[in-house]
Amino acid sequence: MSESNVYKRTINKETVTSKLLTEGERDLRVYLPPGYNEIISYPVIYCQDGEDFFNFGRIATQANRLILEDELEPCIVVGVDVDKKHRTAEYSPDGDRHESYVRFFVEEMIPFVASRYTVRTEADQILLAGDSLGATVSLHIALSYPQRFSRLLSMSGAYYPASRSILADYSESLSWLDAYMFVGLQETEFETDRGVFDFVEMNRQTKQLLEAKGAKLLYYEKDGKHQWGFWQQELPDALRWFMKTDLL
Fold this sequence. Notes:
Elements: H1 3-7, E1 10-17, E2 25-32, E3 44-47, H2 50-55, H3 59-68, E4 76-80, H4 87-91, H5 98-116, E5 126-131, H6 133-144, E6 151-155, H7 161-169, E7 178-184, E8 190-192, E9 195-197, H8 199-212, E10 216-222, H9 228-242
Parallel strand pairs: 3-4, 3-5, 5-6, 6-7, 7-10
Antiparallel strand pairs: 1-2, 2-4, 8-9
Helix pairs in contact: 3-9, 5-6
């Protein structure tokens, strides 16, 4: 397989009109697999921090390569952009824009994508993917709409006390949730806009909370820092995991 085939990717730019978001719209990036056919439905990956997933995670290139090498079922990848000034307010459950963003994601963004592309809607055919706070908001979207989503990719999730408190108080079983979750061992003193946090310990505690409520996890820790150089390397295995029928 030539490198030119890997880099022949179809990525569309879209803008969703929103009644829920203050700015009234949000940009998307949509990767379509080789040979995309509108009469076929495809699994779909929704990524928070869409610009970063496409530019730094190189998710379109990585998915394209795996599909061409028959290691991945053809799928659609949607990156939802975010204004970094409002990222914490939207992604953290105690942020003042969080509820509006979660509703936008499910009530406006996903129907918009479904009206233009043949994405599957079954919970096990959708992956919510995020890094750091993007993993956090993905989890809270799943918790808010448990019938709609069942698969989560959490890369060094920023599970601050508010998130862990919500998880601890969650009264229902999480046996419906399958998560691929990892964190880098060099993330023990990472400086965020909310202070310095030990992401390893934070993710260990979140893992315990999730498992105590019945969630099924593939969890690991390995050498890595809180940055895209680490997460990009881990993405291919995460994509392969999403496509497995029997995850664990």
